[in-house]
Structure prediction request, 947 residues.
Amino acid sequence: MVFPRQKLLAQKRDAAEARLAPLSLPQGGKWITAARENARARLSAMGLPVKRDEYWKYTDPATLTAAEAPEAALFQTADEAPLFDAQDRLKIVFVDGVFDAAASDDLALEGVEIALLSEAAQSDLHWARDLYGALEADGQKPVERPLATFNTAHATEGVLIRATGKAARPISLVYRRRDAGADAVLHHVVKLEPGAELTVLEDGPAAARFNQVMEADVADGATLHHVRAQGRDHERRTAAHLFARLGEGSVFKSFTLTANGAMVRNEAVIRLNGKGGVAHIAGTTVGDGAFHHDDTVFITHAAPGCESRQVFKKVLRHGAVGVFQGKILVEQPAQLTDGYQISQALLLDENAQFLAKPELEIYADDVKCSHGSTSGEIDPTSLFYLRARGIPDAEAKLLLVLAFLAEALDEIEDPSLAEDLRERIENWLRRHAD
Amino acid sequence: MAALDTTTKVRDEDVREGVDRETVETVQSMAGTYKHGWETDIEMEFAPKGLNEDIVRLISEKNEEPEWLTEWRLDAYRRWQTMESPDWAMLDIPPIDYQEQYYYAKPKSMVEKPKSLDEVDPKLLETYEKLGIPLKEQMILAGVEGAEEAPAEGRKVAVDAVFDSVSLGTTFKDELAKAGVIFCSISEAVREHPELVKKYLGSVVPQNDNYFAALNSAVFSDGSFVYVPPGVRCPMELSTYFRINAENTGQFERTLIIADKGSYVSYLEGCTAPKRDTHQLHAAVVEIVALEDAEVKYSTVQNWYPGDENGVGGIYNFVTKRADCREARAKVMWTQVETGSAVTWKYPSCILRGDDTQGEFYSIAITNNHQQADTGTKMIHLGKNSKSRIVSKGISAGFAQNTYRGLVTMHPKALNSRNYTQCDSLLIGDQCGAHTVPYIEVKNASSRVEHEATTSKVDDDQLFYCRSRGMDEEEAVALVVNGFCREVLQELPMEFAMEAQALVAISLEGSVG
Prediction:
């Protein structure tokens, strides 16, 4: 007799085997080959996610794990200037997951060492050795994230960034598309030495299917800001994983704007390892149509006196589905933890859905942890208030939606970056007014 | 129904101004730990140890059940064999050997069914009296005074007492019958009211609903049955008192409550078990059907033996409770105080099928020492304008783990529905855990769902305030905790509220320091 749980594991392993069989490990030097082989072995043991996985209860992973990337029509975004164009930044461009040297800036920035994974992988030794796939492997407990393991094994490109001081300008990763069926796998490693400061920007649709991992090691007293906008392409599919480890007194703030996208799963796995660390993860989702957006966040407080915030806001209509799975885990030594989590959805019509699982798991007693989750439509009283003051219906709704999203946008510390994104959102809302 | 021993007198000078007298009395009188840990020495009749189709048939035969029910049980047993014990709860349970349990135990004196409570073995009645439930007295009282002239003062509670696998008897039957209310053991209902049982049994919790419900469906031995006819307001509170006595015996009771159109009933459930070194299994199923405009209030004080301070022994409590608000404006309210059991796995739920239906869930779960509780509710909104409210208070002390797990789902057709959830956790000591696992599924825009949860420790300022007024630390904690639980305690019927308040204090004993 085969019981359901055994059957599930067998099914997952079969899926991994089917996916891996036609793929051979990319060629590379010793350090990367060791990391890739290790990842492949781990993946074979855990298998790929299937719909019946509890962690995939609200999101069907089928198109993310399939052998072939489903095609995604190229989307014209000529109505908007490229995001962050006005920012003084160091631009690194990838087209369908391939580095585009001509479109990129010179990879030189004071206080920061930047290398391409494709080049670093050829040497036998590299500083990234201790991080590449290591934070990803640590992030597999207590919940498995096989798509990230797949990425560690099969990514051939990415950027390896090591900051030793305060970077003069942000590093901006730009993901463009050219081919309707491209399947891109990128793996970035960001290491901040003690006291370093860096901002990483990301934007663009990347590929028809995009599997991305970013591993960030933020040492004692360092500060990393991360602002990401995932493009407007309707049919694109994305599985992005962000693994961060924070040292004593360090700060990590990440914000993601997701607009449209047939299937988007953004996972953030944060571990507060040193005293007094601060981690803020925020996101705003706007979806109109058959889109599925999943934000899955797992924050572990392993040291005392740390602060974490999760702020996620979703505006959904015409069949868009918003998912939020957030967790705060407070381990026994993490006394004096301050953990906060809020997930809210504004459903603009009866077809939209919001599915949430906001979790707390707490093993320390001297903590302050709270979470809230709400779902509803635009408050008719507020709308009436604005309408009574002569504001047209569409404009009033826009104002209320922007107000609803403000708490998440406030998590972006740099006001000019926040303004860039706010403008994007406003444009989107105006285009989708009806 | 006060299982609380209040023989210890509190001297007046001990009660200080501003201190809840109840709390002080409780803390003082509860010098020991688990109060119901004694055992009744009585001759029992057991079915052979282990579980197989013959045992299922035997149980069915003992209860003189019709063919369809035997088949229904066998079907459940076969389904159970293909299922796995659930592993998703935050519970650490060593594998249970289901062949090492007795599935049927009956006091010898009950083999020949007594015709009335007068014929029941006095030892059994003593057991219940010791627990604070004087079955016989109430019966006599009812006989003497007559139902019509029921005393104006003092509330009457009809009790169905279940001892291991069998129901001993039900009080106030005649008076209830006059109102048309059927309140009897489920085995009796199968014989006397087969049409009702056949129609509703398994209609809320199907045989294969989950592992423990399937097990219960196969081997349930007894439990209570309630039917309240249309338009009847049940004249008194109904109560079932469950007692596990025999060793290595699982208790599998099945309760079925049907509130017909426009009726009202309040139902109380209490449970205790003797102290033992081995774990004992309890897997119950409660089904409630509420028809149009009916209202059911179901309150539980669960005080099964929790095991000792090192986590040895205790009851494994795996319970499936579900209410179906089948028709418009039906209302069901679950209130539970969970203080006992080594392991609690329990999610009293409401299916809000009819339009304008209402479901409420109020819970206090207290875990101390090595207790583990994974409990919560499901509110499944299917009908328009349905409302639900969840208030859960989890308190964890010692090495205990306490999890709230819940589901609120708004189906696309459940327009204009509303849910409010509040779950608060309190940690006492730094070796325990408190967890919150809510699932929220909203599939239409006009419904509003709000969930909030907090976790904190007993506030130092509040403790200091109490301590500076001369309370010792345990008293102070008990007072603060009672305050923390107030919202839920208020929802309990009066007799239960007192017992529950007392239990809150006892369960935390020894957790300070």
The CA atoms of residues 417 and 447 of chain B lie 5 Å apart. The mean pLDDT of chain B is 83.
